[in-house]
From TrEMBL:
The lineage of its organism: Eukaryota, Metazoa, Spiralia, Lophotrochozoa, Mollusca. It comes from Mytilus galloprovincialis. This is DUF4218 domain-containing protein. PANTHER family: F5/8 TYPE C DOMAIN-CONTAINING PROTEIN-RELATED (PTHR46579), F5_8 TYPE C DOMAIN-CONTAINING PROTEIN (PTHR46579:SF1). It comes from the Eukaryota.
Amino acid sequence: MQTENMILYGLWFGESKPFMGGFTKPLVNTLKDIETNGIDFDYNGQTHNSKCFLICGTADLPAKSIVMNCNQFNGQYSCLRCMHSGETYRTSKGGTVRTFPYNSSEPDPEKRTTQECINNAVTAIQNGTVVNGIKGPSFLMALKYYDFVKSSSIDYMHGVLLGITKLLINLWTNGSNNCITPDDLKRSQTMLSYFVHMFTALYGQRYMTLNMHSLLHLPECVEDLGPMWVYSCFPYENANGLLTKLFHGTQNIELQIISSLSIVQNMPSLLCNIEDPVHKAFAEKMQNVSENSKKYTGTLTGSVPVGCKMKMHLSDEVYSKLITTVKFKPSKCLCFRRISLRGFTIHSLEYSRVSVRNTYTVKYFEPERKSLCYGSILYYILAKKCECLDDLCSCDSSLVAVMHRYEETKTSIVKPNFLSVKANHIKVTKKTCFLCVVDTSKIMSVMVNVRIDDIGNYFLCEVPNLKESD
């Protein structure tokens, strides 16, 4: 989610959490108003009206309990997807934690419904007690199309990446598809259930937290709301980082933030209204909208070299394969370290300024072999047909990548098992010295490169999604 598409509802300053009934009252009134009356806007000289409905919400567990007016993650019945009550577990240090043991005899606890949650909220207010983890009504219950159970997502940033993954790494070290099919959901449900079931035996009940229990509800969450990157907290955590840069000193912090944020969110529309090309280029540069480099146009593949050209002597082998790939004898060859491909910047091994991140290991389609192949990009060549003196001319040209190929050594890293689990997204490969020249239009995606040993064996893994940066 882009920052300009976010709306800052409010800021809270204080040593304690706000009373949500009062803090969210203006928000509730606004949401109910746009449900009923909609929002008027002008488009192409005509006035249109669109009614808007809140259908999904995301938050980390502490914030979620406040907004939903329910028990925290360490309380009884704190799962808002089912009626698993959890158990109190005494730790070795003498404290207690709330755990959610996996029950193999009842792997799928009773599901919650919105109406039951509303009834529990009413009973809680009448009796002055907590009912099935619900402390009272939430403002979300008043919205027309917000399903209190299904619309409340499970945030995988905090729950999975910073929760379960971080926990596993600590335990170990201390002692994308384009679509999600029903089969994918069924398989993930089986694998997650087995993972949660075995976790107690491997690491103990102490670590069967709400985050662990929430793994069982991830498939239904994806089925209800779509892929997890849609409603993760990553964009909002980034926005929190942005907020800290919008004020200086200690005076009138809230006014500084509101003023600066208004400028940031309106900047895209303000840029569109700048007519002077020099002023617009300067504004875009300050916004980091455009790359501070030369742009070479005219590539048939739609990909664009980024940065300055470099000096490179092409061997006879590379030059011969270049001609075979582009199907003409280039009059001029320009070499580059980076390209922009479908909006993503891909590096090469020649680009030494980035040492930690690897975006030069890629998957590509090989027309001659009619198969998917993998390679590590050494550098890029812009092959020009023309003899223009200006490298920035718009004449037809072809952009190719020179790379070393990886060969698959195993079809699967997973042995046959009773769960029928496969790991098709992970390839076991060996890096070869075979040079190939590939049209950049044949590059399909960047792969995650994990070295296995020192003799050239690697795991190449598909990137989970291309919607989020790392």
